[in-house]
Design brief:
Length: about 230
């Protein structure tokens, strides 16, 4: 499944009414889109390796899981999905928090390669990678963090990266808001950020130049290191 293009406007999900991707994991349609980010790259990876059959695919997944620092993060996540945790029996790294093997694999997944797309701020791909990981394994973090990361994911996918000031603004809303209104208030902040992003991009197009132009070179590949999702 193809990710949204850099500079595109986030679309609304026909099922949950929020922005596409942001409704995961509760919204099945959004969850499928998030999984598609990983599965699409895995399908391309299998094609490049000319793999056919379940046995070959599993062997390739084991190889990738053993050397995560040599592969794109989406390939690593997809490989882990195809392996069974020896402790809890769930997909490796997707089991309950506290499962030794899942927690270990979850940490080492962050050694994978993260390559920024052309036209995005440096570090955007890492932000996408972390948010996707949290949304796909929500039991491993707090409900509040899942809320913020899932709501920001659609913006990250189109090339946005919060500034320090914007991140602090979101954090302040989370800390001050009562639990029953937290989702609504965070959504309002995200919508305001999206409106600001849209205005900035319109102004850049009018000026004839844009830091999110497809001609902007991509950042160098980077790795966040095992166990360091931020």
């Amino acid at each position: 499944m193809v990710r949204p293009e850099v500079g595109a406007a986030p679309r609304r999900c026909a099922r949950c009414g929020g922005h596409e991707y942001a409704g995961a994991p509760a919204c099945a349609a959004c969850r499928e889109l998030v999984d598609g980010i990983v599965e699409g790259e895995w399908a391309a990876f299998l094609h490049r390796w000319d793999v056919s059959g379940a046995a070959q695919e599993r062997a390739l997944a084991e190889m990738v899981a053993a050397e995560p620092d040599r592969h794109d993060w989406r390939v690593v996540d997809a490989a882990l999905d195809r392996l069974v945790c020896p402790d809890c029996g769930d997909r490796l790294a997707r089991g309950p928090a506290g499962c030794p093997s899942c927690d270990l694999a979850h940490g080492f997944r962050y050694a994978a390669i993260e390559t920024d797309r052309p036209g995005v701020p440096p570090g955007n791909e890492h932000a996408v990678r972390v948010n996707v990981s949290v949304v796909r394994r929500p039991q491993g973090t707090s409900a509040t963090e899942v809320l913020v990361r899932r709501l920001l994911l659609p913006l990250l996918l189109v090339g946005y990266l919060p500034t320090t000031e914007e991140a602090q603004r979101i954090s302040a809303v989370v800390k001050k808001s009562p639990p029953e209104r937290r989702a609504q208030l965070v959504e309002q902040v995200v919508e305001a950020l999206l409106a600001d992003l849209s205005r900035t991009r319109r102004a850049e197009r009018a000026a004839g130049s844009s830091p999110t132009s497809p001609d902007t070179p991509a950042a160098t590949r980077r790795r966040s290191g095992p166990g360091r999702p931020r």
